[in-house]
């Protein structure tokens, strides 16, 4: 009989019998004996069926049976259900040793005194078995008949990927010596982590920003099914693998979309969690058991859970353990203890682990301390890991997580294995080097090692060696090398001029917000033959806010399970409609999921060779503020597409209040080099910007295709004029054009405005002319960010050429000949407009919505921030007076006339401000 759990063990066991009295122990023993006989005669698979049948019968009889969210701390797959290992384990072990050596030596050589850039030695050392089982038997390359897998490698273990690529002949010794020296050794350089932008021919997914990899992997798997269900590409044989750390699973993003994977039945997805029980500074759960915690979490979310905890050496002991004491101790030992065991010795394990019970101490009585020490954790055992991967691939209807117990720094010696500081340890001593070489049986002499501690040799066997022939044959059979990117720009049919006509003709007498102008344009683009099916709208739970519920009946919402309920609004024209063939990815109230979905869709040109166009629309406040890290990863992954910040600005959504009023997202977005921000005022501007965006991202011109266009659009309705005659299209795309020249003579000023502020500038133009005889030209600034970047690039060019080339910034050229002071205004903070100040030849002032937001009317909020039409006029008058071009008393008169100190007197804008 298994000893009962103590009250303090509730976190490690399901404790099914706790609190229940055994009124007939003899009968209980007979039942257990009968069950043991069943297992012995018919195996674990038959036993599983009988137990499940009894549980089902108990439910029929209304007998309460608690849900089992955690199982004993043993391997999920019984020994008698393990498949035969198909490879040659000895050969695979030999070249895995070469990789482990080269990975560690790459980091060691990067620690030369005059370099000292570091690297992580321990991460790959503990994970190499799990990678190699995948590389040798599961990971499919692009040339596989069923298509290539998508593999999210764990960021800190990148030296292992480089070490394998070195054996494969994809990297040279000179490349390995360029680790973490991307500029000083350009041409032979390797980024520290998986960075597709910095190594685009090799990496597919950036994963070192903890938590983003798991989330992106889930949405990648969903997108694979999406492509399949829509009939765009057969992805039925492609699998998504995500290699994660147990400490990483504490990130909210790591666990935040588990239900999506379960609900969508993503059996094309496998998480492999490397449970070395350590995070960066110490144990993940020193007083607990992270494996059990994760098992309960994933099982509760609907995932298939496979635990790989113990190597095959433990099988015999578990079979001999008739008392159940060994399993009890495995259950009760805490993670802090398991970490300590591998940092000590076999004798320590004998005393402190097996010595917890007389029965378990007897189990190892005939074993030496070295034999006890050599008993592996499950994540280092080829047979156990292979069995888990095979079971994961065979599981249908749900995603799988493999929880593999490992030792961080495995095989690196006592200075590294299982130490709290092992993540930060970058250097091996000479003794460490020699011990590591001996452990791996690398044919390098002491003499060679002793020549230079920081220049130990790499090892690569001959091309015709048994190991190299085997390694290359395995990859050829599985479809080629991974990871890798093609970097091809496929030519596709882009929308014709007809698709943009509706947006360019204006709204006549009708009023519409720029959000609606964009939504109407998108609908026209989705109708385009040979192109429309490439567009993937991605929407959090705000489709109706953005007027996109009109898409529901025709485009439909993607749901692989269809719509199996009767919709409450089924009789309405805009009824909610879900379908496996739906185009819309509706991610719910989940902005992080929205960016992950966009990343999967926007990199489809590479992952699937199928260019798709994501259009992710959201409350602008909840974009770069909430998910800026994810957008950075999207840029690193070379994602393409449109980011639409709806209900933008600090004063257009004033009914919603502080946390919804976006005055800074373009400023945050400007820090992402791959994001190009536009703040359009009218539908025709949107049309030209979108047309240019599609051409840049998906056209064939020689330019940077790997960009994302961020458009901020508003919920305030205005009349959109038709495209003006002789429109300066280059100005629209370049960031600024003259919208309306002054029609009167008088002292001159220039009003620069963007987005929803353009109508205020036009109103100010009228006020200045009518009340004060001042001439004002109005400029629409479609992109402050582009103007700033263009100016900076002009300065850099001049610096690099020592003044031999002095390019003129675009904004400087556009304003050439425009006289008078400049007033720049937007519905965002002054930090957006002010950075172009140095490129404007005129006197320059900014009016921005600086500070916290609040709930109020649009007009009141604009008067409070002094960004409304009357404030623009007064600021221009102040600058003209300072120049002596108008009477010095005029600004004060205007200030009083327009009651600028009275918030109630504000009048710029429409009533409203709700969502």
Q: What CATH architecture of the largest domain would you give? A: 3-Layer(aba) Sandwich
> How many structural units, i.e. domains?
5
Which descriptor suits the 3D outline?
elongated
What percent strand? 5-15%
Distance between the termini: 64 Å
What is the CATH topology of the largest domain? Rossmann fold
Indicate the mean pLDDT.
93
Helicity range: 25-40%
Spatial strand arrangement across the major sheet: 10-7-11-12-14-13
Largest sheet: 6 strands, parallel
Task: Look at the structure and name the CATH superfamily of the largest domain.
Answer: Thiamin diphosphate (ThDP)-binding fold, Pyr/PP domains
What is the CATH domain class of the largest domain? Alpha Beta
Oligomerization category of the chains in this entry: single chain
| Number of E-state strands | 20
Q: Point out poorly predicted stretches.
A: 1-14
Cofactor: thiamine diphosphate; Mg(2+)
Keywords: Magnesium, Metal-binding, Oxidoreductase, Pyruvate, Thiamine pyrophosphate
Function: Component of the pyruvate dehydrogenase (PDH) complex, that catalyzes the overall conversion of pyruvate to acetyl-CoA and CO(2).
Domain Pyruvate dehydrogenase E1 component middle: 499-721
């Amino acid at each position: 009989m298994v000893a009962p759990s103590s009250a303090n063990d509730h976190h490690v066991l399901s404790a099914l019998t706790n609190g229940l009295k055994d009124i007939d122990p003899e009968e209980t023993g007979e039942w257990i004996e009968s069950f043991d006989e069943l297992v012995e005669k018919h195996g674990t698979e038959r036993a599983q069926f009988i137990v499940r049948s009894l549980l089902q019968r108990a439910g029929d009889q209304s007998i309460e049976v608690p849900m089992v969210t955690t199982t004993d701390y043993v391997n999920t797959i019984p020994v008698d259900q393990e498949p035969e290992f198909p490879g040659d384990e000895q050969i695979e072990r030999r070249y895995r040793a070469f990789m482990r050596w080269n990975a560690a030596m790459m980091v060691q050589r990067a620690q030369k005194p005059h370099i000292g850039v570091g690297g992580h030695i321990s991460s790959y050392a503990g994970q190499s078995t799990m990678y190699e089982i995948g590389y040798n038997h599961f990971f499919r390359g692009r040339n596989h008949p069923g298509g290539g897998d998508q593999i999210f490698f764990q960021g800190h273990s990148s030296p292992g990927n480089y070490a394998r690529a070195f054996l494969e002949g994809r990297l040279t010794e000179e490349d390995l010596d360029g680790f973490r020296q991307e500029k000083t050794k350009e041409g032979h350089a390797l980024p520290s982590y998986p960075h597709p932008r910095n190594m685009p021919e090799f990496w597919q997914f950036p994963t070192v920003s903890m938590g983003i990899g798991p989330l992106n992997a889930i949405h990648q798997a969903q997108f694979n099914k999406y492509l399949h269900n829509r009939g765009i590409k057969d992805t039925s044989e492609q699998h998504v693998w995500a290699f994660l750390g147990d400490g990483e699973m504490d990130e909210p993003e790591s666990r935040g979309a588990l239900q999506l994977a379960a609900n969508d039945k993503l059996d094309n997805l496998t998480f492999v969690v490397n449970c070395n029980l350590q995070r960066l500074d110490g144990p993940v759960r020193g007083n607990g058991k992270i494996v059990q915690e994760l098992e309960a979490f994933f099982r509760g979310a609907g995932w298939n859970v496979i635990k790989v905890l113990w190597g095959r050496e433990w099988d015999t002991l578990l079979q001999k353990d008739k008392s159940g004491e060994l399993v009890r101790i495995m259950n009760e030992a805490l993670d802090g203890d398991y970490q300590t065991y591998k940092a000590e010795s076999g004798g320590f394990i004998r005393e402190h682990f097996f010595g917890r019970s007389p029965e378990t101490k007897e189990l190892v009585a005939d074993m030496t301390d070295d034999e006890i020490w050599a008993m592996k954790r499950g994540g280092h055992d080829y047979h156990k890991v292979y069995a888990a991967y095979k079971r994961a691939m065979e599981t249908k209807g749900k995603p799988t997580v493999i929880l593999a117990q490992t030792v961080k720094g495995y095989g690196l010696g006592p200075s590294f294995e299982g130490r709290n500081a092992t993540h930060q340890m970058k250097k091996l001593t000479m003794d460490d080097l020699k011990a590591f070489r001996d452990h791996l049986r690398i044919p390098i002499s002491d003499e060679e090692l002793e020549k230079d501690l920081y220049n130990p040799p790499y090892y690569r066997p001959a091309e015709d060696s048994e190991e190299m022939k085997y390694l290359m044959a395995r990859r050829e059979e599985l479809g080629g090398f991974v990871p890798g990117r093609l970097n091809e720009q496929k030519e596709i049919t882009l929308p014709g001029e007809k698709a943009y006509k509706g947006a360019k003709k204006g709204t006549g007498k009708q009023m519409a917000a720029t959000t609606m102008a964009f939504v109407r344009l998108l609908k026209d683009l989705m109708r385009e033959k040979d192109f429309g099916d490439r567009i993937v709208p991605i929407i959090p739970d705000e489709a109706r806010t953005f007027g996109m519920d009109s898409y529901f009946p025709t485009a439909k919402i993607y749901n692989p399970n269809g719509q199996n309920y009767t919709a409450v609004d089924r009789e309405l024209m805009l009824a909610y409609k879900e379908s496996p063939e739906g185009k819309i990815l509706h991610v719910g109230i989940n902005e992080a999921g929205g960016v992950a979905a966009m990343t999967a869709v926007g990199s489809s040109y590479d992952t699937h060779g199928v260019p798709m166009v994501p259009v992710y629309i959201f409350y602008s406040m909840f974009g770069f503020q909430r998910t800026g890290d994810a957008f950075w990863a999207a840029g690193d992954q070379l994602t393409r597409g449109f980011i639409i910040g709806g209900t933008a600005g600090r004063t257009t959504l004033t009914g919603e209040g502080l946390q919804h009023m976006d005055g800074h997202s373009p400023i945050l977005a400007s820090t992402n080099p791959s994001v190009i921000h536009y703040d359009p005022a009218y539908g025709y501007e949107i049309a030209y910007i979108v047309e240019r965006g599609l051409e840049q991202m998906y056209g064939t011109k020689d330019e940077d295709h790997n960009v994302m266009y961020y458009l901020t659009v508003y919920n305030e309705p205005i009349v959109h004029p038709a495209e003006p005659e002789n429109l300066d299209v280059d100005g629209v795309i370049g960031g600024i054009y003259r919208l309306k020249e002054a029609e009167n003579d008088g002292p001159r000023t220039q009003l620069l405005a963007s987005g929803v502020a353009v109508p205020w500038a036009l109103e100010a133009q009228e006020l200045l002319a009518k009340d004060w005889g001042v001439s004002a030209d109005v400029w629409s600034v479609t992109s402050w960010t582009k103007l700033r970047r263009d100016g900076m690039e002009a300065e850099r060019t001049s610096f690099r050429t020592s003044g031999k080339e002095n390019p003129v910034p675009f904004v400087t050229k556009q304003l050439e000949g425009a006289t008078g002071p400049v007033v720049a205004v937007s519905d965002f903070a002054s930090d957006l407009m002010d950075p172009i100040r140095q490129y404007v030849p005129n006197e320059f002032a900014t009016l921005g919505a600086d500070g916290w937001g609040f709930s109020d009317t649009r007009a009141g909020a604009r008067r409070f921030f002094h960004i409304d039409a009357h404030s623009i006029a007064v600021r221009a008058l102040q600058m003209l007076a300072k120049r002596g071009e108008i009477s010095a008393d005029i600004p004060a008169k205007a200030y009083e006339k327009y009651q600028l100190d009275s918030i109630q007197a504000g009048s710029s804008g429409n009533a409203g401000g709700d969502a």
